[in-house]
Amino acid sequence: MENKVGYPRDYQRALNNVLSERRLEELLKGSTPVFLLGPLMLPRMLKSVTDAEPDFDIAANMTQASLLDYKLWIFEGADLPIVMPSKELGQSVDGVLVFALTSDQRNWLYQFEAESYKELAHVQVEICLRDGNLRNIDAATFVWKGEMDGIVAASSKSWKVDAFLESEWYKNAGRRYHSH
């Protein structure tokens, strides 16, 4: 995923956070990691949705990841991303993986994401470790199960965050959580 100089510092940190094998093993001892895309890739948004303490450094528990065997779709006009399984070989979606969410944070996330058209699914993601090796990890993510009206295939495998950063939704989330 692209990491631009003008992006919020906490988001840049999450994208640049490459785990060592040892740190990954520590994090995997906790709850199942969650693959996120769209607005929740931004630490400020994730903290807002999960009602985290303002000084909680959630970016330290995030890293770039690829969701294997899925395809990225977009709601036309809203630019909000969703994922669905793909039958095409080699398809993947870029996003972030977040580790070490508390049960309360996971419940907040579930309430935010789970609707009648999405369901929590067990998936495989791939991350790049500090030593350059790729590692497949069991994770969870929210998968679209609804109608396809108004939904189009994305032109890439990464959601473009730029327009969202200018939105009122993001600015309102920032009132409580500023970039570290």
UniProtKB/TrEMBL annotation:
Pfam families: GGACT. Transmembrane segments: none annotated. Residues 35-160 form the Gamma-glutamylcyclotransferase AIG2-like domain. PANTHER family: AIG2-LIKE PROTEIN D. Belongs to the gamma-glutamylcyclotransferase family. This is Gamma-glutamylcyclotransferase AIG2-like domain-containing protein. The lineage of its organism: Eukaryota, Fungi, Dikarya, Ascomycota, Pezizomycotina.
